[in-house]
Amino acid sequence: MKLERLLSIIILLLNRRMVQAKELAERFEVSVRTIYRDIEAINGAGIPIVTYQGTNGGIGLAEGYRLDRNVLTNDELAAIFTALRSISTSYGNEQHRHLMEKINSVVPPQYSEEFQHKTSRVLIDYSPWDGNERLRPKLQLLKEAVDSCRIAGFIYSNAEGVVSHRIVEPHMLIMKGRQWYLKAYCQTKEQFRLFKLKRMKELEIAPERTFIRRELPMQERTTGQSPRNSSRATEFVLRFQADSRHLAEEWFGIEELVPLDDGSWQVRKAYPEDEWLYRFILGLGHHAEVLEPPHLREIIASRAEQAAKIYRIDKAT
């Protein structure tokens, strides 16, 4: 990711007087041109990094300038370290490991034990229970495509099961709801779309085809709308059995539960009505019942009946 690379370059220059652009490009697996763009971004943030010509030249901090190591406090460094370690559970690479090592190196020895304590208090594990080994190659390919502005192509199956071939301009990788997505401009649909990585196959990056990054429309600068603000949202009411309160709390939170006179619990929510919602409610099994709206209750009842037919012992063989 670009932010991680910029921070890595800054920390590297804190410890070295000069470094070659080619060395940085090889270290971070990007082009020399990308490194010079990074240098411009760092300069724009107020840290004067300059390039020196000649045999012993390279990239370094401007003469007479010294970046105060206390520009980041130990608590802030610990927060960055913790965030990197958490991200690495799902999106780990060699750059993350190098960056964490560099952060460790700038912590004063007298604070080392305290730093280790602070960075071991919280770990947000983004990795799925079934692992993500099949996703890692896709993530790596798409990361390279995003960094180098390369066109990507893949076969995609959408939520309705419609399969199509897409040619896209990769814009950013997004993790939302423990799932990886790609925000990209779809040349087929001529608009920005969000693609779920698990629904991609035959992913290919065209090394000879590049694109100029488009300005992301304002409405596309968030990962998604709140369901209550979506025009496709349907408000529904679920009733959980008295002994299923723990499931209601797990999915919706304690604050959302309303006690009923018979000891059961009611939840009122609004989600986009689609296949995901139907599967979600069916997944609650006998623990929850749809009370409203009537059409959603009928859909769930019909699908539950179809599922029950599959398991009936007396069905024809």
UniProtKB/TrEMBL annotation:
What keywords does the record list, in alphabetical order? DNA-binding, Transcription, Transcription regulation
Name the InterPro entries on file.
Answer: CBASS_pafABC_assoc_protein (IPR051534), DeoR_HTH (IPR001034), HTH_11 (IPR013196), PafC-like (IPR028349), WCX_dom (IPR057727), WH-like_DNA-bd_sf (IPR036388), WH_DNA-bd_sf (IPR036390), WYL_dom (IPR026881)
* One annotated GO molecular function: DNA-binding transcription factor activity
Matching Pfam families = HTH_11, WCX, WYL
Mind telling me which Gene3D superfamilies this protein's record contains? Winged helix-like DNA-binding domain superfamily/Winged helix DNA-binding domain
The protein in question is named Predicted DNA-binding transcriptional regulator YafY, contains an HTH and WYL domains
The chain positions of domain HTH deoR-type read 2-57
Q: Which PANTHER family match?
A: PTHR34580, WYL DOMAIN-CONTAINING PROTEIN
The domain of life is: Bacteria
